[in-house]
Amino acid sequence: MTTGFEKLAQDGAARLGVIRTPRGEVRTPAFMPVGTAATVKAMLPESVRETGADILLGNTYHLMLRPGAERVARLGGLHKFMNWERPILTDSGGFQVMSLAGLRKLTEEGVTFKSHIDGSKHMLSPESSMEIQRLLGSDIVMCFDECPALPAEREAIARSMRLSMRWAERSRAAFGVRPGHMLFGIMQGGLERDLREESAEALKAIGFDGYAIGGLAVGEGQAAMFDCLDYAPGFLPEDKPRYLMGVGKPDDIVGAVKRGVDMMDCVLPSRSGRTGQVFTRRGVVNIKNARHADDPRPLDEACSCPACRSYSRAYLHHVFRAQEMISGMLLTWHNLHYFQEIMQGMRAAIAEGRFAAWEAMFHAQRAEGDIPPL
Ligand SMILES: [Zn+2]
């Protein structure tokens, strides 16, 4: 079996495809739920699968600190450890070192930092990130890179991007030849078109199995992100998957796919599920709102997830207010189900050449807003 990406159809810039791995196929456009600490919070792995997810994302930074990559390897690898036998993508740890760790020191070699858990000192470099992701057993490995927060000076973005490109070369060398596993490069360059192109050229010269668009969804806003996505995917090879990291809200996801993105990940559906924020076809519903207290209707009558099939808004409101665990479980399930339903809807629309009509319907339903209170 060949490991890799095949584009099956295209409608405008939107692409339908499949990533084949020894652990199964990933249908694209794909949304990857985030399993930060070897779990998608509040969900059993089989439930995550039931929502339609083909692949999960694991966080190198979290797993290297706790329980430790060597321990996971001794216990048979991340798939076995967390009971998810399908594909897993791991990030490089770079982004979270920058956002979570204390006392960071960035050099050409890599980043030294203190754990946010116990203050212990660690080092991440292209070489150590490749080794940790190998120990975890990740199917799709990400290059170690630096992601500057926006807004930033053009000079700082250029300097950071060129460092990431040198790290990409070292990541490629350290990854070596590993049949059945893929290594993705990460494009940087902020909102500067020429820097994005320079970054893409550098990555293509090294050669990767897939290409991520990094450094977006870091505070620039949707309009600026879409402006960048109007050109950035076009700098990348046609025949390789394109992954937009850390995105996003339902309308971000649809806009990204429309512009030629194949894969995305975000904590939003699971994190929001724990804070009472629900994503539906008709926009966002805040379940803690008093209007739901006596409402016997489901969140979304057209949704087939367990939260909508078997529970009322009144019950979901009650268990959220009472801080019962089932609240996070049901709302996370619904949110993940809805995100996967969006992906399935887009895949079907691209296959049939009706993406524009699907997108118009998506926006029209959202514009209606939530069902009126009783
Ligand atoms: Zn539902």
Give the helix/strand layout.
Elements: E1 4-11, E2 14-21, E3 24-28, E4 30-35, H1 45-50, E5 56-58, H2 60-65, H3 69-74, H4 78-82, E6 88-90, H5 94-100, E7 102-106, E8 111-114, E9 121-124, H6 126-136, E10 140-142, H7 154-175, E11 182-187, H8 193-206, E12 210-213, H9 222-229, E13 242-244, H10 250-258, E14 263-266, H11 268-275, E15 277-280, E16 283-286, H12 306-310, H13 313-321, H14 325-351, H15 355-368
Parallel strand pairs: 4-5, 4-14, 5-6, 6-10, 10-11, 11-12, 12-13, 13-14
Antiparallel strand pairs: 1-2, 2-3, 7-8, 8-9, 15-16
Helix pairs in contact: 6-7, 7-8, 11-14, 13-14, 14-15
The protein binds zinc ion (ZN).
How would you characterize this protein structure?
By secondary structure, this protein is of the alpha/beta class. The protein has 2 domains: 4-265, TIM Barrel (Alpha-Beta Barrel); 273-368, no CATH class. 42% of the residues lie in helices and 20% in strands. It is built from 15 helices and 16 strands. The strands form 4 sheets. The protein has an 8-stranded parallel barrel, surrounded by 6 helices. A hairpin with a 2-residue loop joins strand 15 and strand 16. The chain is globular, with a radius of gyration of 20 Å. The termini are far apart. Bound molecules: zinc ion. Zinc ion binds next to helix 12 and helix 14. It is an enzyme of class 2 (transferase).
Keyphrases for this structure?
three-stranded antiparallel sheet; 374 residues; eight-stranded parallel beta barrel; TIM Barrel; alpha/beta; 2 domains; 15 helices; binds zinc ion
